Structure formats: C-alpha cells, structure tokens
Amino acid sequence: MLTMEKTADYVKRWVAAFESKDLDRVLAFYANDVIFHSPLIARLSHDPSGTVQGKAALRAYVKKGFEVFDHIKFTVLDVLRGVDSIAIHYKGITSTHVVEVLFFDKDGMVRESYVHYASTD
C-alpha cells in the first residue's frame, strides 16, 4: 500500500521528469512491458487504438510528444491512492484537465497507465 508521503514524493518526481523532457528520466518510471493508453496516442500516431505496448513503443510516443509540445507544465490538482495504483488529476500541457491512473507492479514500476482528458467540446 502506498503511503501519502511516498505518493506525494513519487508524483513530484514523476511531474519533474516530464517537465524536464528527459526521455530516460521519464521512462525510468515504467516497466519494460508497460501498456499505456491515451487518446493523445491516437492523435499523435494516427493509431486509433490509443495504446502502446512495451517501453520501446512508449519511448517513441513520449519522444513524439516532446517534439510536438515545446513546453511541458503539469499543475497537480489532486492525487488519489488505490491498492496498487494512483490517480493523478492535473492540468496538462494545454490547461486541459487530465486524470492519469498508474497501476504498479510488485517492484513499484508502472505496468499500465490510463490517461483521461476532459472534453474540450
């Protein structure tokens, strides 16, 4: 079970990694066999599944995102803890509300992630 202190530290490091735009630093949070789901995958890669599998595919997706977005800034609004997961509610790159749910393996690595964006309609 994740403590509040461990969760707060984790989220702080996770956000800092993305904001640094350092691929290796970001990917250090994810398991080699990670499954990552995001509507942005469908938009950036034209893959309607919105899913990448494995760290190499995640690397390519994150690299593309870093190329598309000049500046990355996440404003964390709330963090919710589960048994082996956390949900991070934040304002993303375009000030859109995002909820990202990270599921951890027994080693504390993200094994699966689901990203949800607020409707902009």
Tell me the distance between the termini: 37 Å
Uncertain runs with pLDDT below 50, 5 residues or more?
none
Count every beta strand, where a strand is a DSSP E run of 2 or more residues: 6
Provide the β-strand percentage band: 25-35%
Q: Which quaternary structure do these chains form?
A: single chain
The shape is: globular
Alpha-beta content class = alpha+beta
Structure write-up:
The chain has helices at 4-20, 23-27, 39-45, 55-68, and strands at residues 30-37, 51-53, 75-81, 85-91, 97-104, 110-117. It has 121 residues and is α+β, with helices and mostly antiparallel strands. Strands 2-1-6-5-4-3 form a 6-stranded mixed beta sheet. It starts with a helix and ends with a strand.
Q: What distinguishing features does this structure have?
A:
single chain, 121 residues, alpha+beta, Nuclear Transport Factor 2, Chain: A, six-stranded mixed sheet, 34% strand
Characterize this entry briefly.
Helices cover 36% and strands 34% of the residues. It is an alpha+beta fold and 121 residues long.
Give a topology summary.
Elements: H1 4-20, H2 23-27, E1 30-37, H3 39-45, E2 51-53, H4 55-68, E3 75-81, E4 85-91, E5 97-104, E6 110-117
